[in-house]
Model the fold of this input.
Amino acid sequence: MGVEVAVHGLSKSFGRTSIWRDVSLTLPAGEVSVLLGPSGTGKSVFLKCLIGLLKPERGSVVIDDTDLVSCRESTLYRLRRLFGVLFQDGALFGSMSVLDNVCFPLREHTRKSESEVRRIAREKLELVGLGGAEDKLPGEISGGMRKRAGLARALVLEPEIILCDEPDSGLDPVRTAYLSQLLIDLNAQLDATILIVTHNITVARTVPDNLGMLFRRELVMFGPREVLLTSDEPVVAQFLNGRRLGPIGMSEEKDTATMAAEREHARAGHADGGEDVRGVVPQLEPTPGLPPRDAVRRRRERVMRMLPTLPEAARRSVLASVDTQEQR
Done:
């Protein structure tokens, strides 16, 4: 099973520019979480701080009772073995075959024999549906295939935590749907802790157990999907509905005059480019034949304990999902 990642009071700046400050959240062990936010809010920076590639000015990232921010370099190197990272573009070596790209971490970080390395790499390629592409170069396969090859490489060291940096970027809706299903299937099989950074509203609404959002250098919200998908928080509702009307502007933050003009425009009955899709839609389930996700059960148990403290809309959504599950 994956491990819990507890982030507390994390702040990061580049020079005088604050990226985000005092970010606190917990990625529950073995569950799928999504981090949303407009472009430029530091989502990728957050992932790099989680694995120690960037050092925050303040705060902690605790895994297995160890703070990755303040630990020794040797300890950090050991804990990084817990992570598998899928970068935005796959980050494959262009001169290596797909198979050799996937073999690379095993050759660098283990003492396994070459035959064992290649066996494990082929197993992971089969897992992501690339069994026939071992000998191709990255330039000879599609963008979606490169993403899946990057995911196979992220899995070869059997990580307990998988970080995906905009896995849907550059993919068409159909390939994005396949990749979303693949991540759900991986969670069902591995019970790994997964964090996905994305702009994709469909992914955010259908894939994760937990949702969070960065905006104006702060974490606006983070919690079970039922809470955020029914939230009245203006920036969350605007983002999930893809609307112009709300706090997010082309330059991230709007002035009050712009917001007032947009509200007047909406009151006059003019469309703002979005639609009201608030509410909790069914979550993706594992492909038939795979085991049910333990993450769903754990999240529901946690949410039921939280039920008295949730907003009314979230409570109704939780109880409706319980009724649906009982009917099944």
Notes: The first strand starts at residue 5 and ends at 14.
